[in-house]
Every structure is written in C-alpha cells, then in structure tokens.
Design goal:
Blueprint (H helix, E strand, L loop, with lengths): L2 H12 L5 H15 L1 H6 L8 H8 L10 H9 L7 H22 L5 H14 L2 H5 L7 H14 L1 H4 L1 H17 L1 H23 L12 H22 L8 H11 L2 H9 L18 H6 L4 H4 L2 H19 L1 H16 L12 H11 L4 H6 L9 H28 L3 H24 L4 H5 L4 H12 L7 H4 L6
Helix pairs in contact: 2-6, 2-7, 4-5, 4-20, 6-9, 7-25, 9-11, 9-12, 9-23, 11-12, 11-13, 12-13, 12-23, 14-18, 19-23, 22-23, 22-25, 23-25
Length: about 475
C-alpha cells in the first residue's frame, strides 16, 4: 500500500461517526458487507414467496396474500433483468438506518469500530440473509429503528436525514401487511408515552417524543398500499387476506374445531362438511393441496366464512383466544433460527424465472442455494447460542439502565424490546410461528448492545446522554 493510501486508511479509522465523510464511507462500505451472503451465494437469496412477487410485479397478476407494493418495487427496480438492484436498494436503506442509529447512540464510535460491528452481525446473525433476499423481511427491523429515531432524535438528525428516514419507514410500512400493524403499535405506545411524560409529575423530566412523524410514516405507507392495490384491482382497500391467515392460526390452535364441534350442523358453515378433515397445522391448511381450504376455492372462496368464524369464536371463547395468542406470541419470540425455508426451490420457481426473468435463469440455477450447498446446521450452531447469550446480556443491560436511571439507554433498549415483543405478538396473533419472522429482526439485540457499549467506551461526555435530544 502506498503512503498516500495508508494515510487515507488511518484517516478513515480515526474519523468519528459524527463526521460527514465517515458517515458516507460507513454507508458505502456497509452495503457490500450486508450483501456478503448474496455475493457468496452467487445470486440474491430466494424465498418461496419470491415467485408470487414475481408473478404479481412482473406478470401483472394480483395476488391478494402478497404485498402489491413490494411487487411493484421489484418491477420498477429492474428485477426483470436483474435482482441485484433490488437487494442493493435494501442494503443501502439498511446501511443508512444503521449508520444513523450509530451516530445517535454512539457518536464517538470510530468508523472502523462501526464496520466491525456490522461485520460481526453479518457473521453471527441472520441479518445478511434477509437484506440479500428477494423478500420484504429486511424492512421489519427498519420500521423499529426509523420509528425510534424519528420519535426521539429527529431534531438532532436534521431535516434531510429525518426526511430520508420518513421515506424508508413509509416504504417499510407498505412492504408487508404485518409492518403496518407493527407501526400502528409503535405509534400507540408513543402517544401513551407522550401523555404520561406530559401529565405525570414524576415523568415530566423524561425526553419528549414526537409521535406525529411515525404517524406520518403510517399515513404515507397506507397511501402506498392503497395505490398499489388500486393499480392491480381498480379498487380502494388496504388488505383483504388477513382473515384467512388468522383463520389458519385458529385451525392450528384448535379453536376452529371447537366451534365446529359445538355448532355444526346447525350453524350452516360450509366447513361443517369438512369438520373431520381439518389438518393439524395452519401451514397444512393453507399450502397443502388436498385440504378443505383448497376444496372451498382458497383465499377467495373461504374469506367470508373465515371472517364469520373468527368473530364467532371471539364471542364464544375469548379466554381461549387470549391463551392461544399469549402462547403463540411467546413461542414466536423464541423461534429465531436462521435459514427458514432457504433451500433449493426451483421445483416451484423454475417456471417463474423462465417466464419473467429468462436472462437470470442460468445464474439462479448456478447459485449455491439452488445447488443445495448451504447447510444451516453449523450456521445455527453459532447463530442460535449467540442470540441467546445476547438476550441474556440485553436483559442485564436493561436492568442496569433501570437501576442507574439512565433514561436514554432505557428508551433505546426499551424500544428494541418493544419491537421484539410487538413483532412476536403480531406474527403470533395474525399468522403462524416461523423462525424467519423473529430472525429477521433479532439482530437488533446484539446491535443495540454493541452501540450501548461503544457509546461508553471512551472518556468524556456519555454518548447517550449527549445525544438524547428530543424529536419535538
């Protein structure tokens, strides 16, 4: 390395994260780190749902159970000729948000330290498997981080960065129906916090929260969803498949069978005729071809009755519902192994690639994923214990912050905990527990711990206390 290059390298390593040049370099260098798995694979990671997004976005066929907005994103990001721009955008958005969190929580963190944290997350968590995947799951964590930043640090970040965060949060909200529900939960908690800190005497000295910027993100996200739905159907609505997914969970929890046993044949449900043929799991109900769900014409044919049965069970068995939701949410909270259904999928998706992206077919088939060269057993020997250790450290750090009355740390770690519990509750209540649902944002635990530790690693003013400006 030349002397000039060495000098530049030293300069970058010494730049604090608040420096504008280091901020840009951090984002630029973090993008390839986040795409390391996809680059190693030789092709972006593909999920089974990718085919539905392709059919919708590139084929123009409306699929009510998949986000039309994310499908249109594939279309306009150039997925017909290459999926790489899609994951590059995802990586850039993730890198930008992570950098803003680092600037806020640990502004004295050197660039090299920040990149080391990013590299650690790439190796030790599922983060790169979602950023580099043709699926909206990587945006789940961004909804939480953007909301936190906009609520408590918008003023300190400045208008340009805050506007970028609003745009990313709105995009993330529209990218998946569960994100809209999650964002609604964040907004509700922020308004409660805002009310408490305004009227409770003991809480008036806590940092103020800006709840209206997250509400703006939700509003923009809803507009994007409605516009995307209208693009395909010429109808105005937000979502129509929610009752079917909730119904699948009720099948798995035994609540549907309880209602059918108690009311058939007097209730007149079409499902009464199939009472003894109900599958044991929600996934079998939705995706196995010989189930009553498909005999009754799938999403379109069962939607009305699914909604009627949901309301009937809520009236008859409220405590059964409550126990099921709590149990399903708890199960989802601790279900976070990496690699859920990331496997060879050409037996399902070959025709989609052949029809809509023929120029990418050979690269798709040559990828390690499609050649069955990825083994998640040794990966999860590392990832799962690391996350459990991180959760234990997170609990200790949160408890210590409470004991020390470190309000900035309490708010940041508390918001991460809110995201984890909220995501587990939303997915546990509205769908069926899967590893990928919690794995897609569990990396926030070690990320938050690393930033908290980095913010305290140098003498002088505490990073968190120095950056606790209100977002109002």
């Amino acid at each position: 390395m030349s002397g000039a290059a060495q000098g530049i390298g030293l300069q970058f390593r010494r730049l604090p994260a608040t420096d504008g040049a280091a901020e840009i370099v951090a984002i630029v260098l973090l993008v390839p780190l986040l795409l390391a798995v996809a680059l190693w694979n030789g092709f972006p990671i593909i999920f089974y749902d990718t085919g539905a997004y392709m059919l919708q976005g590139l084929g123009g066929v409306f699929i009510e159970e998949r986000s039309p907005f994310y499908s249109l994103f594939l279309r306009y990001a150039g997925a017909a000729w290459s999926f790489w721009p899609v994951v590059i955008v995802q990586a850039a958005a993730t890198a930008f948000v992570m950098t803003q969190v680092a600037r806020t929580i640990a502004p004295r963190l050197p660039l090299a330290g920040f990149l080391a944290i990013g590299a650690g997350l790439v190796v030790l968590t599922g983060l790169p498997w979602y950023v580099g995947q043709i699926e909206p799951d990587c945006f789940t964590a961004l909804t939480a981080l953007c909301t936190y930043l906009l609520a408590f640090h918008a003023a300190a970040l400045g208008r340009a960065r805050a506007a970028a965060l609003v745009a990313i949060a709105a995009f993330a909200t529209a990218a998946h129906p569960s994100h809209l529900v999650l964002m609604g939960g964040f907004a509700l908690v922020l308004f409660i916090y805002k009310g408490v800190t305004r009227w409770a005497a003991a809480a008036k000295t806590w940092p103020r929260a800006n709840a209206w910027l997250p509400v703006l993100c939700i509003a923009l996200g809803v507009v994007l969803v409605v516009a995307a739905n209208y693009n395909f159907t010429r109808k105005v609505f937000i979502a129509s498949s929610g009752p079917v997914f909730v119904f699948a969970r009720l099948v798995q929890d035994g609540i549907v069978m309880r209602l059918l046993d108690d009311t058939c044949p007097q209730s007149g449900y079409k499902l009464c005729a199939y009472k003894d043929a109900l599958p044991r799991t929600g996934d079998q109900w939705l995706w196995t071809k010989d189930t009553p769900f498909h005999a009754l014409n799938g999403f379109e044919g069962t939607k009305a009755e699914s909604e009627a049965i949901i309301w009937a069970t809520l009236k008859r068995y409220p405590l059964m519902h409550l126990r099921a939701v709590v149990g399903d949410a708890a199960r989802q909270f601790v279900t976070f192994a990496t690699g859920d259904q990331i496997e060879p999928q050409q037996w399902v998706l070959y025709d989609k690639f052949k029809d809509f992206t023929p120029g990418q077919l050979s690269a798709y088939l040559a990828a390690r994923q499609q050649k069955a060269e990825i083994d998640f057993v040794p990966i999860n020997w590392v990832h799962v214990p690391f996350i459990w250790l991180s959760l234990a450290a997170f609990a200790a750090a949160f408890g210590l912050a409470i004991a020390r009355e470190d309000r900035a740390a309490i708010l940041f770690l508390g918001f991460v905990l809110l995201a984890l519990v909220g995501n587990a509750t939303v997915c546990g209540a509205l769908s069926i527990a899967h590893d990928r649902y919690q794995s897609r944002l569990i990396w926030l635990v070690p990320f938050s711990l690393a930033l908290i530790a980095s913010g305290r690693s140098k003498p002088g003013p505490r990073a968190l206390r120095a950056c606790a400006e209100s977002g109002t």
